[in-house]
Design brief:
This protein has about 210 residues and is an all-alpha fold. It has nine helices and no strands.
Length: about 210
């Protein structure tokens, strides 16, 4: 897909047609429904690689619609529940790239709520705990984009939302500090900046 995106897209679409015919023959087959969702995801990724964000978004939303039906028809299918969360994050990424921050936030929140529910049902599942942290980072990271867009109150709200779930993720406090700086709460912002000065963040990058 990296070298020949157009050719990859052609094969993915041919595969989609094949899966669509199978699903029409047996709409109750959830395995084929899941395969159909995967085909839409692959097409969406190829389109995203070509910077065709509107069509990529359509493909991801088609994949999400299918997995939502599968998850609703079989609530015990935890993999389907997780894939709904993953797809919401993918949709959020495209919306974020398009500058549609409020819509991106809604998608990220959907993903986060789904993963929080899954993690609560099985607190020992390390994979789900990792997915939960990833969803939290999507919400918290979007605060920086709200700061750049001048939506400082929303940036603060989103930062606090993420920090309530992951208070040990120090990097999330950077976005909160930026937001309260522009909200005029300079003393509070200065104290926050100084509190974590020199603290290692991700990949040993210091505050």
């Amino acid at each position: 897909m990296q070298d020949q995106a157009a050719d990859s897209l052609k094969f993915y679409r041919e595969g989609l047609t094949t899966i669509e015919n199978l699903v029409k023959a047996d709409p109750s087959n959830e395995t084929w429904q899941s395969d159909l969702s995967v085909s839409h995801v692959k097409i969406g990724l190829a389109l995203q690689h070509q910077s065709n964000l509107p069509d990529a978004l359509k493909s991801f939303r088609s994949a999400l619609e299918i997995m939502q039906r599968v998850s609703q028809s079989n609530p015990a299918d935890m993999d389907a529940q997780r894939r709904v969360s993953v797809l919401n994050n993918m949709i959020g990424d495209v919306l974020k790239a398009e500058g549609k921050l409020e819509e991106a936030l809604a998608s990220y929140r959907e993903s986060l709520a789904r993963m929080a529910h899954l993690t609560k049902s099985d607190p020992e599942n390390e994979g789900w705990k990792g997915d939960l942290q990833y969803s939290i980072s999507k919400v918290g990271g979007l605060a920086y984009n709200f700061v750049l867009a001048g939506h400082f109150a929303t940036a603060l709200q989103v930062s606090d939302e993420a920090l309530a779930l992951a208070p040990d993720q120090i990097w999330l406090y950077t976005n909160k500090a930026h937001a309260i700086t522009f909200l005029g709460r300079t003393d509070e912002a200065r104290a926050l900046y100084l509190k974590y000065r020199g603290t290692p963040l991700r990949k040993d990058k210091p505050w």
